[in-house]
């Protein structure tokens, strides 16, 4: 197959609707969009949670061995880490964290806000689990905007919709937010070898040539060809029945063993136990000063 050609039309592989649980204060509500434990199915993604929370829910805590990508739906999110990083993100902003060898941070609602966020955990390959941690904030206005076929697309990460997003991830991923008016038909391009899923923030859409319907709070994985060359693209047709807002994530699978417990994701449980010991010994650095 020639490089740069469209290698496949994407269709819905599986779809489901998120179930939400009421939480105890200071948390408010939670829904799991990608359930943990389905490592091979979602690879390189580990889990994605939708959270509503007050200040005090996600105070000082550690991570090792993976990355997070946090999208703010509503409210304000304050990030503080023990390396001097600080920022406040608002609706449409995202924060990327590479935990690497060991990060320690807090993610808090601001003042009396209820923060409403999506947090995606993305695995790191074994050779990158020991790299230095890093953070990157991408404001909504920094995302690359593309208007095409009646759709407004914000590209945050990776090469898609003919542009390159500003996010610098340690593994190949794409992230785009797509807004569509009723009756709009838009074709979104993704690397064919990327595992991909989408989440419908609002609206009602039909996906692919098979016109699989999805409504608000619906999620779906897509067909893909893992053996394809990285340069080969695929396309997903999205038809909007109502005004709709879609997030599409994709990533190249890592295909390594996953051992996860609490805030750590490694390749073996022995490595997870070592992460707990290292944290207890202070190897993740000082407390987060909020």
From TrEMBL:
<feature type="binding site">
    <location>
        <position position="61"/>
    </location>
    <ligand>
        <name>Fe cation</name>
    </ligand>
</feature>
<keyword id="KW-0479">Metal-binding</keyword>
<feature type="binding site">
    <location>
        <position position="105"/>
    </location>
    <ligand>
        <name>Fe cation</name>
    </ligand>
</feature>
<protein>
    <recommendedName>
        <fullName>Pirin</fullName>
    </recommendedName>
</protein>
<dbReference type="InterPro" id="IPR014710">
    <property type="entry name" value="RmlC-like_jellyroll"/>
</dbReference>
<dbReference type="Pfam" id="PF05726">
    <property type="entry name" value="Pirin_C"/>
</dbReference>
<feature type="binding site">
    <location>
        <position position="107"/>
    </location>
    <ligand>
        <name>Fe cation</name>
    </ligand>
</feature>
<dbReference type="GO" id="GO:0046872">
    <property type="term" value="F:metal ion binding"/>
</dbReference>
<dbReference type="InterPro" id="IPR011051">
    <property type="entry name" value="RmlC_Cupin_sf"/>
</dbReference>
<keyword id="KW-0408">Iron</keyword>
<feature type="domain" description="Pirin C-terminal">
    <location>
        <begin position="176"/>
        <end position="285"/>
    </location>
</feature>
<dbReference type="InterPro" id="IPR003829">
    <property type="entry name" value="Pirin_N_dom"/>
</dbReference>
<feature type="binding site">
    <location>
        <position position="63"/>
    </location>
    <ligand>
        <name>Fe cation</name>
    </ligand>
</feature>
<dbReference type="InterPro" id="IPR012093">
    <property type="entry name" value="Pirin"/>
</dbReference>
<dbReference type="Pfam" id="PF02678">
    <property type="entry name" value="Pirin"/>
</dbReference>
<feature type="domain" description="Pirin N-terminal">
    <location>
        <begin position="51"/>
        <end position="122"/>
    </location>
</feature>
<dbReference type="InterPro" id="IPR008778">
    <property type="entry name" value="Pirin_C_dom"/>
</dbReference>
<comment type="similarity">
    <text>Belongs to the pirin family.</text>
</comment>
């Amino acid at each position: 197959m020639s490089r740069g050609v469209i290698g496949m039309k994407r269709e819905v592989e599986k779809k489901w609707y998120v179930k939400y649980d009421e939480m105890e204060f200071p948390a408010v509500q939670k829904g799991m969009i990608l359930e943990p434990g389905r490592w091979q199915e979602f690879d390189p993604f580990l889990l994605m949670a939708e959270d509503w929370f007050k200040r005090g829910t996600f105070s000082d805590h550690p991570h090792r061995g993976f990355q997070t990508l946090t999208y703010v739906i509503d409210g304000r999110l304050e990030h503080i880490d023990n390396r001097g990083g600080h920022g406040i993100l608002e609706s449409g902003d995202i924060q990327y964290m590479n935990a690497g060898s060991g990060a320690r941070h807090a993610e808090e609602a601001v003042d009396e806000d209820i923060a409403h966020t999506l947090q995606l955990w993305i695995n790191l390959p074994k050779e990158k689990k020991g790299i230095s941690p890093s953070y990157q904030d991408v404001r909504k206005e920094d995302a690359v905007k593309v208007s095409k076929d009646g759709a407004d697309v914000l590209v945050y990460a990776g090469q898609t919709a003919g542009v390159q997003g500003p996010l610098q991830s340690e593994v190949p991923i794409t992230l785009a937010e797509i807004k569509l008016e009723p009756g709009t038909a838009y074709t979104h391009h993704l690397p064919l070898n990327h595992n991909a899923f989408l989440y419908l923030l609002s609206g009602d859409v039909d996906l692919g040539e098979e016109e699989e319907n999805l409504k608000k709070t619906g999620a779906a994985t897509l067909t893909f060809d893992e053996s394809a060359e990285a340069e080969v693209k695929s396309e997903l047709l999205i038809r909007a029945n109502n005004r709709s807002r879609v997030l599409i994530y994709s990533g190249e699978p890592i295909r390594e063993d996953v051992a996860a417990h609490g805030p750590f994701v490694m390749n073996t449980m022995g490595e997870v136990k070592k992460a707990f010991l290292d944290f207890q010994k202070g190897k993740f650095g000082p407390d987060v000063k909020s």
